[in-house]
Amino acid sequence: MTEQMQSEQGQTVVDSAKADKTIIHVEAMHKWYGSFHVLKNLNLDVAQGERIVICGPSGSGKSTFIRCINRLEEHQQGKIVVDGVELTDDVRHIDSVRKEVGMVFQHFNLFPHMTVLENCCVAPIWVRKTPRKEAEATAMEYLKRVKIPDQANKYPGQLSGGQQQRVAIARALCMKPKIMLFDEPTSALDPEMIKEVLDTMIELASSGMTMLCVTHEMGFAKTVADRVIFMDGGEIVESAPPHDFFDNPQEPRTQQFLKQILHH
Amino acid sequence: MSESMAPPKRAFAPVQWMRDNLFNTWYNILLTVVVVYMIGTSIGPLLNWLFLDATFTGADPKDCVGDGACWLFINQRLNFFMYGFYPDAQQWRVDIMFFLLAVAFVPQFIERFPARRWLGIFGMTGLPIIGYILIPGGWFGLEEVQSNKWGGLMLTLILAYVGIIGSLPLGIILALGRRSEMPVIRGFCVIFIEVWRAVPLITVLFMASVMLPLFLPEGMNFEKLLRALIGITLWQSAYMAEVIRGGLQAIPRGQYEAGSALGLGYWRKMRLIILPQALTLVIPGIVNTFIGLFMDTTLVLIIGLFDILGTVQSTITDPAWQNVAIEGYVFVAFCFWVFCFGMSRYSQNLERKLDTGHKT
Amino acid sequence: MNDNNPPLQPSRSKPWNDPRVRAIFFQVVALAAIAWSGWTLIENTLANMESRGISTGFGFLDQSAGFGIIMSLIPYDATYSYGRTFFVGLLNTLLVSAMGIVAATILGFIIGVARLSSNWLIAKLSLAYIEIIRNIPILLQIFFWYFAVLRSLPTPRQSVDVGGVFFLNNRGLYLPDPIAQPGFGWVEAALVIAIVAVVIIKRWAKKRQLATGEIFPTVKVGISILIGLPLLAYLATGGPIEWDIPALKGFNFGGGITLIPELAALWVALTLFTAAFIAEIVRSGILSVSKGQTEAARALGLHNGLTLRLVVIPQAMRVIIPPLTSQYLNLFKNSSLATAIGYPDLVSVFMGTTLNQTGQAVEVVAMTMAVYLTVSLLISFFMNLYNRAAALKER
C-alpha cells in the first residue's frame, strides 16, 4: 500500500516541476545483491536544477541508489533515464551518462599518484578531448572556486581531508557535468573540516547545479534542498520539501528517524 | 515496510553460474573451450600413467613392464630414500625422532590442541638434545653411526631442523644489533646480514666445504655435514634477522616507551615486552623462510651429501634401474609439495588472523 | 635574576653507570672481539695454506687453464688463462639470468593477470600453477627438465624436426642463424629512421593535444612504424638475410645457433619457478589499488582501458616493482644451480673447476662472492633511488 502512495507522491512533485525539464527519471527500479533485495520499487523524477537530499539509516540503500544513477551499480528491474539516455548494458550509454554526471565519494578517491591539477585535468583531456592548456585553465578556475588554487601542484596525500574533498568536488566539476552526485561527502571528515566542504556545496547549489546528496547533515538539507527523501529498508518512505519534512513528517518511520538524529 | 521479493527469475543456478563465470564474453568462451579441451585430452593419459598402467608391486626392476609409471622403484628403494645408509638395525632411533618431531610440531597446526605451546617449546629446546644423543649415538651404549651414513628424508629434516633452530637465536641477536644505537654493533650486523643475503647458498656451501678447513687451526677438522650445517645456519640467520627486524619495526614506539617508563633495562625490556610481541607477529614470516630453507636443503647434494633428492638422484643413475627419472622426481616433488604447501597454508591462515587481530 | 650564575647542570652520574660510556665500552669490546677473531682466522688460514703448499695472491689468474668449457660467449679454449675462465663463467651467468628475467617477467605477468580473470577456469588454473610450482625445490625442477625431459630426447640422428629448420635432440635445440648480407644496412637505416620518426610523432601529438585536444593513437602508430618500416626496407632490398640452417653432419648437427640442453633446462626451470612468484606479486599489486580508485575513474567517464592505463597500472607498478626486483635477484642467485647440471656458469666454472685445479680457495671464493655482492648492492642502490622517486607524497 505504501508503495502506491509514494509513487503517487513522486509523480505529483514532478508534475509541479514541469515534466519536460526532467533530467533524471527512475521508474519501478529494483536491485538485488544475490537474493538480498536492496532497492525496492524506487520511483523518482528530478527536474533540472533541483537539489535533493537523501537521508536514512545506514543500510537503507541510499548510497546504492545514487550509485545506480551513474551505473557504478547495476539495477535488475525498472528503468533509469538520465539526461534522455537510458542506462542499459550498453557501454556507450553508460559512458555518455558518466560524462554528464559528476560524483563525489565519501573517501574522496583522489588519484594519489597525480597532482591536484592532474587529478582535475585527466578526465577533460582523455574523455572530453580538451586541449591541455584549456583543461588546466578550467581546473585552476574550479580550484579557485573551492578556494585551494595554491595547492594545485601538491599531491593528494599532502592535503587535509577537507582540502582533498574540495579537490574531489573540483575534479568532478571540471567535466562540466549537468548533475552532481554526493555520496556522504562529509562522513569521513573531522568535524572542523565539515564546514568547509559544506560551504563549497552550498556555493555550488546556488549556481543552479542539479544535485543529489546522500548526507546526514540536516542543516545542509534545511538550507539547500528543494526536496528531502527519506529511505529505509531499500524503499523511499517519504519525500517532501524540507520544511514539511522536518516540521511535519507523515510517516512513523520518518518521525522515529528524525527524533533519533535530532536528539543526537 | 514492503516485503522483499525474490530476484527476477534467472536460469537454473549451475547453468547461470557457468554463463557468468565461464562463458561471459566471447574471449572467455574461447579460453574455456581451449582449456577444457587441453585438460580433457591430457587427463586421461596422465591418470593412465600415474595409476592405471602403473606397476606398484614386484620385487625386481624387470617387473616394470607396462607403459605406466614404475612405482615399484619407489617401493623398493624407500628405505634408502628415508634413511640413506643408516644401518637397518639402528633405524628405530631415527623413527623415534620422526615420531617426536611429529608430536612436537603437528599440534602447532591444530588450534586448541592442549599444551601445544609447551610442545612447541619442547620441540625447539629439548628435542634437539634428544636428537643429538640419539642420531649419532656413541654413548649410553648406542652404537655410533657416522654422519656420512646419514641420508634421505632424515638428512633433509636434520638440515632444515638444525638450520632453523640455530638461525633463530642468531637471527634475533642480529636483528637487535641492526636496530642498536651503537654504530659499531649496528654496522657489523648490517654488513653480516647483507653479505649473506647477497650470495647464493651454493657459494656458501662451497665456501663452507673448502674454506672452513682453512680457517680452523691445524688438527681440528669437521665432518662434511657439520660444515654444511654451519654454512646453512649462518646463511639462514641473515634471512631470519630480516624477518625479525620487520616484527620489531611493527611494534609501536609506545611499547618501547612504556617498557622504559616501567624502569626496565634494555635486555629485560626486549625479553619481557618487545620480543614476545614481535616474534608472535613474525611467525608467518618465520614459517615462510623455513619453507624456503627446507627447499634449499636440496642444494647439499652438490657438495656430495645424500639428502632425499640426492638419494633419488643417485638411484636414477644406477644402471639397475632404467628410465625411472620421472617417477623419482615426481616422488620427491610430492614429498616437498605436501610439506611446503601445508606450511604455507598454515602461515597464510595465521597471517590473516594476526592481521584482523591488529586492526580491532 | 643574576646572569653571572652558570646554567644549572644535571648532576653527574658515575661514569660506569652512564649509558653513553657503557655504549662506548661495549663497542670497543665488540670491535676487539671482531678484530681478534678476524686475526685468528687469517693466521690460521695462512698457516694452513703454507702447510699445504698453496701460494697466496692472484698470480694464478694468468696461468693457462688447460680445460675446455662447453659454451662460451667470448673466444675461449684450453690455452686461455684462469682469469679468462672467470669472464666466460660470468658472461654465461649473465646470459641465463637475462634470458630468465625476460621470460619470467612475461610469463609471470600473464599468469598474475590470469589469476584475476573473470573466467573461473583460467583463474583456478593459474592458482594451481602457482601453488604447485613454488612449493617444489628449484633444484628438483632443474633436474626434472634436464635429466627427465631433455636427456630423454632422441639422439641427433632421430632429431625432432620442425619444418627442416629447427631440430631438437638430446644435444640441444638447433635454430637457424640469421647472417646479414650486403644491403642489410638499409634495413638498419630504416630502423633508425623509424625510431626518429616515432620520437617526432610523439612530440607532435603532444603539441597537437595541447592546442586542439585531439588525442593521437601514438602507441599503435608508433609500434606499426617501428615494425613496418624496417620490414618494408627488408622486402624492398630483396631480403638481405641468409639463414644458416643447421644440418646433420656425421654424428651431430653443424651450423645454426645451438641452445645446449644445460642452458635450455636451466632457462626453462628458472623461468617457470620465478614466474610463479612474479605472478603472485603482480596479482597483489593489482589488488592493492583500491576499488574506490577504479570507481572514481569510471565515474569521471574514463572507459575500462583508460582506467587501467592511467589509474590502475601506475599505482600497481609502485607496489610491484620493489618485490619484482628482489625476484630478479633471486633468479640471478638461483642461476648458480647451473653447477648441478654442468651448465658452465660462474660458480660451476670458476668456483668449481678453477678452484679444484688451482686450490686457491680464498681468492676464488672472494672473487665469486664479490660478483654476487656487487650485483646485489647495485640493484638495491637503484631500488632505493626508485623508491625515493616513486614514493607517494604524504604529509
Could you characterize what this model shows?
The complex is a heterotrimer of chains A (264), B (360) and C (395). With 264 residues, chain A is α/β, with parallel strands linked by helices. In chain A, 42% of the residues lie in helices and 24% in strands. Chain A has helices at 2-16, 62-69, 91-100, 116-126, 132-145, 161-173, 191-206, 218-224, 242-247, 252-263, and strands spanning 22-33, 36-47, 51-55, 77-82, 85-86, 101-104, 179-183, 210-214, 227-232, 235-240. In chain A, the strands form two sheets. In chain A, strands 6-7-8-3-9-10 form a six-stranded mixed β-sheet, with helices on both faces. A four-stranded antiparallel β-sheet of chain A has the order 2-1-4-5. In chain A, helix 5 (132-145) packs across helix 6. Chain A is globular and about 55 Å long. Residues 1-19 of chain A have low confidence and may be disordered. Chain B is an all-alpha fold. Chain B has two domains: 83-145, no CATH class; 146-354, MetI-like (MetI-like fold). Chain B is built from 16 helices and no strands. Chain B has helices spanning 13-21, 26-52, 72-83, 91-105, 116-124, 126-134, 152-178, 183-198, 201-210, 212-215, 224-250, 253-261, 266-281, 283-296, 308-316, 325-359. In chain B, helix 7 packs antiparallel against helix 8 (183-198). The longest helix of chain B is centred in the last third of the chain and has 35 residues, at 325-359. The two termini of chain B are 35 Å apart. In chain C, helix 2 runs antiparallel to helix 10 (346-358), helix 5 (184-212) packs antiparallel against helix 6 and helix 10 (346-358) runs antiparallel to helix 11. Chain C is an alpha+beta fold and 395 residues long. Chain C has a domain at 51-156 and 262-395: MetI-like (MetI-like fold, Orthogonal Bundle). Chains in contact: A-B, A-C, B-C.
In short:
The complex is a heterotrimer of chains A (264), B (360) and C (395). Chain B has 360 residues and is mainly α. Chain B is built from 16 helices and no strands.
What order do the helices and strands come in, and which of them pair?
The complex is a heterotrimer of chains A (264), B (360) and C (395).
Chain A: H1 2-16, E1 22-33, E2 36-47, E3 51-55, H2 62-69, E4 77-82, E5 85-86, H3 91-100, E6 101-104, H4 116-126, H5 132-145, H6 161-173, E7 179-183, H7 191-206, E8 210-214, H8 218-224, E9 227-232, E10 235-240, H9 242-247, H10 252-263
Parallel strand pairs in A: 3-8, 3-9, 6-7, 7-8
Antiparallel strand pairs in A: 1-2, 1-4, 4-5, 9-10
Helix pairs in contact in A: 4-5, 4-6, 5-6, 6-7
Chain B: H1 13-21, H2 26-52, H3 72-83, H4 91-105, H5 116-124, H6 126-134, H7 152-178, H8 183-198, H9 201-210, H10 212-215, H11 224-250, H12 253-261, H13 266-281, H14 283-296, H15 308-316, H16 325-359
Helix pairs in contact in B: 3-7, 3-15, 4-5, 4-6, 7-8, 7-11, 7-15, 8-11, 9-11, 11-13, 11-14, 12-13, 14-16, 15-16
Chain C: H1 19-52, H2 82-115, H3 120-133, H4 138-150, E1 160-162, E2 166-169, E3 172-175, E4 177-180, H5 184-212, H6 218-236, E5 241-244, E6 247-249, E7 252-254, E8 257-259, H7 261-288, H8 291-299, H9 304-334, H10 346-358, H11 361-390
Antiparallel strand pairs in C: 1-2, 2-3, 3-8, 4-5, 6-7
Helix pairs in contact in C: 2-3, 2-7, 2-10, 3-7, 4-7, 5-6, 7-9, 8-9, 9-11, 10-11
